[in-house]
Amino acid sequence: MGALSPERNGSVSIRLDVWLDIACLFKTRSEAQHACASGKIEVNHQSAKPNRLLKVGDEIEIRRPFGRKQHILVRGLTDRHVAKAEARQLYQDLTPKPTAEDIETRRLERMYRAAVTPPKAPDKRERRALRRLRGRDD
Predict the structure, then answer these.
(1) Segment 4-26, tens digit of pLDDT
(2) DSSP state of 89
């Protein structure tokens, strides 16, 4: 990863996709790039590309699955990966706490997805156990 690049006015900046990865808001930089390219990231209320330079004080809105939005205020910049506890110091999460209705809705969504997800095929150990149960012990 490159070093922090100074802007014309002397402040320090870093690429948006790099910062999102370092701040542990996305698992990988490529995942952060994809989110930017698909319009799921806004910086200061403007759609942002992965190469946008980010500086301290910028506000980021991340659209998460199922209509949820995460609001972030940039508190610090670094160009090196740091421990997750230190990465949390790079931003302030301004997302409001979920209401009781939101929590219940999320619980129902999880239950629905679990019911709709097709069952996986049994693995070797499970197939052997099924054969033993059916009395076809080989």
Answers:
(1) 666 656 578 899 999 999 999 99
(2) G
Rounded Cα distance, 123 and 130, in Å: 11
Q: How far apart are the C-alpha atoms of 120 and 124, rounded to whole Å?
A: 12
- One-letter amino acid for residue 13 of the chain: S
Contacts of 47 by beta carbon, 8 Å cutoff, 6+ apart: 39, 41
**Of residues 137 and 17, more confidently modeled:** 17
The 10s digit of each residue's pLDDT in 28-58 is 999 999 999 999 999 999 999 999 999 999 9
What does the DSSP assignment read for 24-83? TSSSSHHHHHHHHHTT-EEETTEE--TT-EE-TT-EEEEEPGGG-EEEEEE----SS---
Per the listing, tokens 């320090």 go with 12
The 10 Å Cβ neighbour count of residue 31 is 14
Residue 31: C-alpha distances to residues 7, 27, 67, 129 (Å): 26, 7, 18, 40
pTM: 0.73
The helix/strand/coil state of 91 is: strand
